[in-house]
Amino acid sequence: MKRAMVVGAVLSTLSVNTTLVANPLWTETPLVEPLSDSAPLALSTLSDLAEAFYPSVVTVRVKGELHRHNPSDTPHAQQSQATGLVISDSGYILTNNHVVAKAKEIDIVFVDQSESPAVVVGRDPETDIALLKIKPDGKKLVAAPLGNSDDVRIGEWVIAIGNPFGLNHTVTAGIVSATGRTQVRPSKEQTYSDFIQTDASINLGNSGGPLINTRGVVIGMNTAINRRGQGIGFAIPSNMIKILLPQLAQGKIVRSWLGIDVEDVTEKEAQAMGFSSTYGAKVTQVRQGSPADRADIAVGDILVDFNGKRITNRDELRWMASTAGPGKTASIGVQRNEKQTTKLVVLEEMPTDSHGGGARGGAEPVDASEFSAVGFRAGESVNGVIVVSVHKGSPASVAGLKTGDLIKKVGQSDVDSIQTLAAILGAIPASASLEITVDRDQKSTFLVIKGRQAKP
Fold it and tell me: Nearest CA to 102 among 57, 58, 59, 66?
């Protein structure tokens, strides 16, 4: 099945130098002697890793807004805790955006139980990354090194350290199960993902903690789990984090737009173009007056490289473009019919009025027209198939479907993926009503969608 993505109003970009070099914001020097690939793994190796990283892993305690269960109750602040990672001796601490997004007060607790208040320096909901800062006040901080996640190998040993369920500095071990998990969407806000998958046990409270390899460096930040499975956890790659850190330290992520919608190239299309493998991103829409429009990129073009690097798929194109920067000129290889050319595109900052309607740098994880007959868009999250937008006045809207709903069943059929949902809907006659069960606010809700629209 083709998977299309709004990229433009869309392909967002971040004004950051993408060269991954040591920076005052972080270090890359291992805390322990790196273990070579050919060296045997001893249990003491994992113990040494855990011991070395203990001082760098912190508890992030958060107090939120005042809340009353009943009007007569005394208001109290909602409290939660997760994990953070010291990345510089000057006091910068890394954690997830969802940990601190609604924080009114943040305290950092170290392994020796000493505490320091923290402030949010910058956060980015679209990658679920946040940067905090404390005043060391003479405290010697141990900075955890951020490694090169591009060097990660599937099957290599890793450990995760965090505070699951308040159990501080819990260490678990496992392997890297997979890399490049772009289809995982932990939340409707998170639109850029390229996760490392691990079977090291990760639970609630591990968010913001490090995933560490035997070379003694952090290769990812633990951020999500699949609640329906066991041994399926996800970490944000360290290279993605390092690209964003300079802007997070400035307190703001600036994105630009390219102005196109793209989808993955199918095997049939790749063969027709004479490609040796399936790669690239096919343009399905060009926004009038956008940077791509002015550069003469057209619907049907297949974009094959970005600034000299091959485009593997639509998600990789989004991320490569997201590191180019507003005002920068991007060189894009374009395959049109049987001819390949290079287009120079001057990227612009994303317009402030472009939010909504699929205009957030590819916020929708699936084709905008995929479920147009029903009137909603959906994508895959770690919890299942999530509704990311509902068209006003559509059959889905009339039936009461809402953004954020988790689609669990259609009729008596379970829905566990976009492919399953598409297959179920395709097998039901257009004249028939759709009986859909969704999870909303931790409650099961039953909806009936009537009067599906004809496909254009």
Answer: 66
Domain ranges of the chain: 4-14+255-354, 376-449
8 A C-beta contact, residue 283 and residue 301: yes
Verify whether residue 207 is a known catalytic residue.
yes
> CB burial class (10 A; 0-12, 13-18, 19+) of residue 52?
middle
Query: What are the φ/ψ torsions at residue 413 (nearest 5 degrees)?
Result: -95, 130
Kindly indicate whether the domain formed by 4-14+255-354 is annotated with CATH number 2.30.42.10: yes
Residue 343 C-beta-side C-alpha neighbours within 13 Å: 24
Distance CA 191, CA 406 (A): 17
Per CATH, 4-14+255-354 and 376-449 having the same topology is answered: yes
Selected catalytic residue, list 98, 194, 264, 290: 98
pTM of the model: 0.69
| Catalytic-labelled residue, pool 207, 322, 381, 394 | 207
Taking only the tens of pLDDT, the chain with its 456 residues reads: 444 443 433 344 444 443 444 457 888 888 887 777 666 666 678 899 999 999 999 999 998 866 555 566 656 667 889 999 999 999 999 999 999 998 999 999 999 999 999 999 999 988 899 999 999 988 999 999 999 999 999 999 999 999 888 888 899 999 999 998 877 766 656 567 789 999 998 888 889 999 999 999 999 999 877 666 577 889 999 999 998 999 999 998 887 778 888 888 888 888 887 887 888 999 888 888 888 999 999 988 999 999 999 998 888 888 778 778 889 999 999 999 888 999 999 998 866 544 332 223 333 333 334 577 788 877 765 556 778 777 777 888 889 888 778 888 898 888 887 778 888 888 888 778 888 999 876 678 889 998 765 443
Catalytic residue of the set 124, 128, 261, 301: 128
> How would CATH label the architecture of 376-449?
Roll (2.30)
Q: Is 76 a catalytic residue?
A: no
